[in-house]
Write a structure and sequence with these properties.
With about 400 residues, the chain is of the alpha/beta class. The protein has helices at about 40-55, 70-80, 95-100, 120-125, 155-165, 185-195, 210-225, 230-240, 305-315, 315-320, 340-345, 345-355, 365-380, 385-400, and strands at about 30-35, 60-65, 85-90, 105, 125, 130, 135-140, 140-145, 175-180, 245-250, 265, 275, 280, 290-295, 330, 360. It is globular. The chain starts with about 30 loop residues before the first strand and ends in a 6-residue tail after the last helix.
């Protein structure tokens, strides 16, 4: 029987239901999963859950739809009233606060980590705990116009050269690259590629090194090739209109570019240098990975069963029903070895990025530094000398960490 229990709720939801036992048997526990999918994604998730329940697991998975606008408020209210879900869809950005607030619990040792990209596992790890089962990944990409650029640039220097050679082809404007350079999810790969680090050996913030200066000078070079707004809508219009050779996008945006027959996608090319354990000349070695997944509620009585359900819902056979058709890219490498993803060049590029990338930092200390670094980038784009922006950023970092500047 198809499971059709996807209903919009108000207030804190209803208590978790218990199925009526069949005479002589004990009813399996009901695991309630909250989500915000709509349309075909919702129908695909229904089918995945039906397939799971039809396999007779030692629990029964029940879906409940919550509108996206109310989603996390409902999660918190449900937790407080003990009327929330056992399991719920979660964006990585919400994980630290949900954990600190006592809404979710660790899922360490409840699923097979090796089935997933290690960068995806790192992306859902906070305070030494794995706090979600990864479902899908988002990675930064370089979009390039095949009519203007023969191939993807193999290095940062080649990117600058190709962008410059194409930047005067459109009404004498200087459009070489579109995209928001101050968005560290997109440009953070270059920060790592130039050797930038967040801390020194004494665990103090370090934003004023020669490597960081090289990074900021690289940003200045890119900014000099860009005209127009950093607004993502404007950037997308420039790319789709064929008026720019390169653009920074995330893999989550790829569906918006499906209509283009002139665009191709690659990893962000890195500087030709090696820094510590990071080989920055690798085209993928410094890229960050963001994640969406499933979190287990702190007050569920069926944590092991909820984690098992999450492991199934993130498996290749499940994500093929509800996640991949929406343009999402799975967090399990095995999902890229069959079907449409196996035949997709961009999907294989994303797999390569995720295989060698790093989890986007959830660490509370690092989160203090990311806005400061973004401000440094914005400053040099607006004309501040890189060394001045760097020094000002270090002063802000010291202040954020309670360190007296020398």
């Amino acid at each position: 029987m198809t499971l059709l229990l996807l209903v919009s709720v108000s207030g804190c939801g209803s208590p978790r239901p218990t199925p009526k036992p069949v005479q002589g048997t004990e009813a399996p526990p009901v695991i309630t999963l909250w989500h915000y999918y709509q349309g075909s994604a919702r129908r695909g998730l229904e089918q995945a859950v039906k397939n799971l329940n039809d396999s007779n697991p030692p629990y029964h998975l029940q879906l409940q739809y919550i509108p996206k606008a109310d989603y996390y408020q409902m999660i918190n209210q449900g937790q407080a009233a003990d009327k929330g879900p056992d399991l719920f869809l979660v964006d990585q950005s919400q994980i630290p606060q949900l954990f600190v607030s006592g809404v979710i619990q660790p899922v360490d040792n409840t699923f097979t980590y090796s089935n997933y990209f290690q960068a995806a596992i790192a992306a859902v790890t906070f305070s030494g705990n794995i706090l979600a089962v990864p479902k899908s990944i988002n990675v930064p990409l370089l979009a390039y116009n095949k009519q203007l650029v023969a191939k993807a640039p193999s290095s940062f220097a080649e990117l600058l050269k190709d962008a410059a050679s194409n930047s005067s082809a459109f009404n004498s404007t200087t459009v070489g690259l579109s995209g928001d350079l101050s968005n560290l999810f997109l440009s953070g790969a270059w920060y790592a590629g130039f050797g930038g680090q967040f801390y020194n050996d004494s665990a103090q913030p370090t934003l004023d090194t020669p490597q960081v200066l090289n990074f900021l000078q690289g940003i200045v070079s890119l900014a000099a090739l860009k005209a127009g707004s950093y607004d993502p809508v404007a950037s997308r219009s420039m790319l789709l209109g064929g008026s720019v050779p390169f653009g920074l996008i995330s893999s989550a945006e790829l569906k918006q570019y499906q209509s283009s027959k002139t665009l191709a996608f690659s990893a962000l090319p890195q500087p030709n240098m090696t820094t510590g354990a990071t080989t920055a000349s690798s085209p993928t070695g410094a890229n960050y990975v963001q994640v969406e997944g499933f979190a287990v509620s702190a007050n569920t009585k069926f944590a092991a069963a909820a984690a098992a359900a999450a492991a199934y819902l993130t498996s290749p056979q499940a994500v093929d029903l509800y996640s991949v058709p929406q343009g999402e890219f799975p967090a399990e490498p095995a999902a890229y070895t069959t079907g449409a993803l196996q035949k997709s060049a961009v999907a294989q590029t994303i797999k390569n990025i995720a295989s060698t990338g790093a989890g986007y930092p959830l660490d509370a200390r690092t989160n203090l530094l990311l806005p400061i670094l973004s401000q440094m980038i914005q400053a040099v784009i607006k004309g501040t000398a890189p060394i001045q922006a760097m020094q000002a950023g270090q002063i802000k970092a010291n202040k954020a960490f309670g360190i007296t500047s020398p």
